[in-house]
């Protein structure tokens, strides 16, 4: 349609004011679901213009209202329409209504005449007023009485689209809402996004502290719903439950009910990549290495340095500063060795201390991350091992550190990080593995714990080197990840060539077999052509005897834990039984062995094996 042909049509379309006066606005309702029992606790009332008209959508309606400067009037008319329609349909539960801050100010400023809106056909205690993000609130102190007026009328107060635009933590703290609706940005794909997961978990902690109830908006699939359910979020809303409709949904669809009541628990997304780069305990590593030590000014003499070292025999070095910034470092041993030479004290004692100083010391900023510090360990400049280094605070001298403390700090943090995420595969480490097993057991969820090991990996590693061995481990991790349903199955890397899968998929056996087959075929490409033709490699066993080793293959030992058996097990016992099953699988031609968890509960004592010994056995 040309612009000229469209113009009369647009001109003939009634304005928003006319639609309000003629009562041509229509209400539609979207369910809000309580995850406890899967019941519909209420509906959000939304407004639409005449069906088929250019003003049917809310975006078009409010855009036109803005042009006509009647947005607040439209919001009041929308609320009245929703209330009347809601009552006429005899809908159960609460009714959620949207208002901007400006419209709420006008509503409460109008006194009893405006608040009579809530004295209509439904009890005001069934109304929840949602503060939308359309307009900012510049003076929260003056807006608080608006909220109190609404509460006095019997309505509850909610923040809508929290986390975006004008919905800030400042609003939450000062207005103390009864309900907070989390914006769909944080909810969409939360099952696969660790940062969104952590953001919602932070909101959840604050909601518990403030007494607010959370509603997750924008739920569109079962995976996101189950993650939110298992996090402990109270309620949800989204297309997965139902779209806005003139006829409100009274009962959830079967798919939604089944997702809420699903027996399996969610696999929470893990921010494993960032874990290895963060300092343990949230404290900057440099601050732990800091040695408080005096510094000398640039104009100090060598005699001043000698006097300082003699007065502080434990001081390994001294920094030279100018205007609080370090410019050099004098190592104690190097200085004393040189100064002890004949006549050096007489010749150099009164000369500037920079003569025997390192004018390019290693500087470490106090806020530096572990990975930034670790680059020093791999650099060509290794003087810090002997001289130590200078620690700064925004460029100003703060103190000293030793090479030994740097190596220890980097090592400790990386060991700590590896407990959470394997540094090679970035898969969850031992702590997340144990945590997920505990969650499975506490929920009495049925699962299969599969301990994965690579046969003949050590001879391959010895023959081809650690770099090629790491490539095989990364390939194994990829194969195992492909075998898992990320919403049901948890994959962790225990260490070395040991992995653990906690299967909740019903097709776990087929997935395990496929992983073995895929890995065994793919591992051949890591061998040289001659070794592939020979069927393996020659090497030495653990006793130094010449031995021929076949190709690297995958073995999986599995422990079945039936639903309702969680109380009979601990995470250590599950890991230990899986490790024993793995030992059997290494002797099995198929590479897969399954044992029953309940039938094997007494297996470890009977074999004289402690859980720790079983877990470390290979």
Automatic annotation (TrEMBL):
UniProt-listed CDD domains: CBS_pair_GGDEF_EAL (cd04598), EAL (cd01948)
The organism's place on the tree of life at top rank: Bacteria
Residue span, GGDEF domain: 445-598
EAL domain span: 9-258
InterPro entries: Cyclic-di-GMP_PDE-like (IPR050706), EAL_dom (IPR001633), EAL_sf (IPR035919), GGDEF_dom (IPR000160), Nucleotide_cyclase (IPR029787), Rev_trsase/Diguanyl_cyclase (IPR043128)
A Pfam family that the UniProt record links to this protein: GGDEF
Name of the protein described by the UniProt record: Diguanylate cyclase/phosphodiesterase
Taxonomic source organism: Paraburkholderia hiiakae
């Amino acid at each position: 349609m040309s612009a000229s042909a469209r113009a009369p049509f647009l001109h003939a379309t009634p304005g928003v004011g006319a639609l309000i006066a003629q009562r041509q606005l229509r209400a539609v309702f979207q369910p809000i679901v309580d995850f406890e029992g899967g019941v519909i606790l209420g509906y959000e009332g939304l407004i639409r213009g005449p069906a088929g008209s250019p003003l049917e959508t809310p975006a078009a309606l409010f855009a036109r209202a803005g042009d006509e400067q009647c947005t607040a009037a439209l919001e009041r008319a929308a609320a009245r329409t929703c209330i009347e329609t809601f009552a006429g349909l005899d809908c159960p539960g609460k009714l959620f209504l949207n208002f901007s801050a400006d419209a709420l100010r006008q509503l409460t400023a109008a006194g009893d005449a405006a608040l009579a809106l809530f004295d209509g056909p439904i009890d005001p205690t069934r109304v929840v007023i949602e503060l939308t993000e359309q307009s900012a609130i510049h003076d929260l102190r003056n807006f608080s009485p608006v909220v109190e007026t609404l509460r006095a009328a019997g309505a509850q107060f909610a923040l809508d689209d929290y986390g975006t635009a004008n919905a800030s933590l400042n609003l939450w703290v000062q207005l103390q809402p009864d309900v907070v609706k989390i914006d769909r940005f944080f909810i969409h794909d939360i099952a696969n996004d660790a940062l969104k997961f952590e953001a919602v978990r932070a909101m959840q902690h604050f909601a518990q502290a403030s007494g607010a109830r959370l509603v997750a908006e924008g739920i569109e699939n079962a995976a996101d719903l189950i993650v939110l359910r298992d996090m402990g979020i109270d309620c949800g809303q989204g297309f997965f439950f139902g779209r806005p409709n003139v006829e409100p949904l009274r009962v959830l669809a079967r798919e939604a009910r089944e997702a809420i009541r699903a027996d399996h628990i969610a696999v929470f997304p893990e921010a494993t990549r960032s874990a290895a780069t963060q300092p343990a305990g949230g404290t900057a590593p440099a601050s732990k290495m800091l040695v408080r030590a005096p510094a000398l000014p640039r104009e100090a003499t060598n005699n001043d340095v000698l006097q300082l070292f003699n007065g502080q025999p434990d001081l390994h070095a001294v920094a030279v500063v100018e205007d609080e910034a370090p410019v050099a470092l004098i190592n104690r041993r190097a200085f004393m060795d040189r100064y002890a030479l004949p006549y050096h004290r007489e010749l150099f004692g009164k000369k500037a201390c920079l003569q025997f100083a390192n004018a390019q010391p290693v500087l470490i900023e106090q806020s530096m991350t572990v990975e930034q510090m670790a680059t020093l360990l791999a650099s060509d400049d290794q003087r810090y091992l002997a001289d130590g280094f200078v620690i700064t605070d925004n460029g100003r001298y703060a103190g000293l550190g030793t090479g030994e403390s740097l190596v220890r700090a980097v090592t400790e943090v990386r060991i700590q990080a590896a407990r959470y995420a394997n540094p090679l595969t970035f898969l969850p480490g031992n702590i997340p593995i144990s945590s997920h097993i505990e969650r499975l057991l506490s929920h009495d969820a049925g699962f299969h714990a599969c301990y994965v090991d690579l046969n003949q990996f050590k001879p391959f590693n010895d023959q081809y080197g650690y770099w090629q061995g790491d490539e095989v481990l990364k390939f194994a991790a990829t194969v195992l990840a492909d075998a898992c349903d990320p919403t049901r199955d948890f994959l962790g890397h225990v260490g070395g060539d040991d992995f653990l899968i906690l299967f909740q998929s019903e097709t776990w056996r087929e997935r395990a077999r496929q992983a073995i087959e895929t890995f065994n075929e793919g591992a051949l490409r890591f061998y040289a052509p001659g070794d592939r033709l020979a069927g393996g490699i020659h090497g030495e066993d653990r006793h130094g005897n010449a031995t021929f080793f076949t190709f690297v293959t995958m073995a999986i030992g599995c422990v079945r834990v039936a639903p309702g058996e969680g109380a009979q097990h601990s995470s250590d016992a599950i890991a230990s039984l899986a490790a024993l099953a793995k030992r059997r699988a290494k002797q099995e031609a198929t590479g897969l062995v399954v044992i029953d968890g309940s039938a094997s509960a007494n297996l470890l004592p009977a074999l004289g094996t402690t859980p720790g010994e079983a877990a470390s056995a290979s």
